[in-house]
UniProtKB/TrEMBL annotation:
Keywords: ATP-binding, Nucleotide-binding, Transport. Residues 7-248 form the ABC transporter domain. Gene3D superfamilies: P-loop containing nucleotide triphosphate hydrolases. It holds the Pfam family ABC_tran. SUPFAM superfamilies: P-loop containing nucleoside triphosphate hydrolases (SSF52540). This is ABC transporter ATP-binding protein. GO terms for molecular function: ATP binding. It comes from Ferrimicrobium acidiphilum. It comes from the Bacteria. PANTHER family: CONSERVED COMPONENT OF ABC TRANSPORTER FOR NATURAL AMINO ACIDS, CONSERVED COMPONENT OF ABC TRANSPORTER FOR NATURAL AMINO ACIDS-RELATED.
Amino acid sequence: MTTDTLLEVRGLHRSFGGVTALAGCTLEVMSGKINGLIGPNGSGKTTMFNIVTGYERCDDGDVLYQGTSIRNRTPEAIFALGIGRTFQLTRIFGRLSVLDNMLVATQRKESWVRSMLRPTGSASERDHAMELLDFVGLARLAGELAGSLSYGQRKLLELAYVLVADPQLILLDEPAGGVNPSLINQLSEKITELNRQGKTFLVIEHNMEFVMGICHSVTVMSYGCVIAAGPPEIVRTDPKVLDAYLGGTEEDDDDES
Ligand SMILES: Nc1ncnc2c1ncn2[C@@H]1O[C@H](COP(=O)(O)OP(=O)(O)OP(=O)(O)O)[C@@H](O)[C@H]1O
């Protein structure tokens, strides 16, 4: 581990019955960088995210954040440390307005149920929520039901939702999946801008153009292990990566386009 390492995953193991999702997964997330995480379907990327953010327990191994073990802590405890995440399938509240979704995030430190029932927020919380909606280009939709947003707009709302807590490390699970190209560009710009402001990212994504375009470093998983890591231009020509992921993934590529 170097002084630039913000998050370190050491030898993580996780099985579901007879299925080994993680088989000794080890990786480092560099502070102040946009770190990509790629790999074929089922290679263990989301399971690793779930363990890092407390949504799954690991069988063995460790997760260190700023050098301290956060293994098997609760999602709330990990969120409070400054690690925010989005999900592959967005978790916004469709029957609340866009702004009220943001206010739920503001009050996440309270009971989740209470914040759902009373997502009013103080004037300053509402102002901050509106600033973040403006940042992701959704301010004009603040009063609309979140359920009426397009898929790409939901992804932007989830990003704004995560930013409410001002996390230092942001984990994005397939932010560009199913999103139209113009919103993908908007998302790339926002991630790059947030990174310039000092946020560190770990981004799972199948869209290679997106990953190679914004990431400073890319880690590649296959069968629950890391098989390569480094700058995108090096990783993309690594024979192990071509073999495991880029070769023979035409179906996957079609899925994501
Ligand atoms: N809750 C679960 N119960 C049983 N098996 C699971 C569970 N979660 C994950 N798995 C299995 O673990 C393996 C790794 O899955 P995971 O979702 O972590 O991969 P992934 O790399 O994120 O895949 P994708 O790119 O398709 O999202 C897969 O074989 C998956 O079926």
